[in-house]
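Interim report to the steering committee. The following record documents the input for Glycerol-3-phosphate acyltransferase (198 residues).
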Amino acid sequence: MKFVLVAVLAYLIGCINNAYIFTKYTRNIDIRNYGSGNAGATNVLRVLGPKAAAPVFVLDVLKGVVAVLLGKYFIGMPGALIAGIAVVCGHNWPIFLKFRGGKGVATSVGVVMTINPLLGLIALAIGVAVIAITRYVSLGSMTGAITFALLNIFFPNSVQVLTFAIVLALLVIFQHRSNIKRLINGTESKIGQRVQIK
């Protein structure tokens, strides 16, 4: 029963969509109607710029941190892992926004940095490096997620943590499936490209 409660609580924390809330109350727009249609920090960056995206990113990271800490407090590491997946699912498919949320990258950063700070930092550094080199946020995000999963293979902690890392990577990749198509076609937007709000 505790596992179910932790999962539900973490999911609801994830459902707090900072991109939607921030843009709705500061610019009176629904961020999902602009850019990629994604309610996440990257789309806020694309549409409104870094000053608007920064607080959204930080708050999304904190969602992951809070959910994992709550799960760990109630059940220990198994609870942390369940909460980590659930909070990302809440961000991706928020019930309050008809399941139209973000792609879970910033929240995933908070999750992995709380569960394994060292491996999380390595994966984050590699992901940021890819973004800096290619200027594709989507490619860097997927690379970081895959790197975290691979690191858990080479530096094993437990089967549960490895399974968690693989599931988290699959969630990130699944949410970027349209980006993958655009990357292949050469039509993916690069960081710094802005969308005009009419």
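Residues 50-75 form the longest helix (26 residues). The committee is asked to note this result when reviewing the revised timeline.
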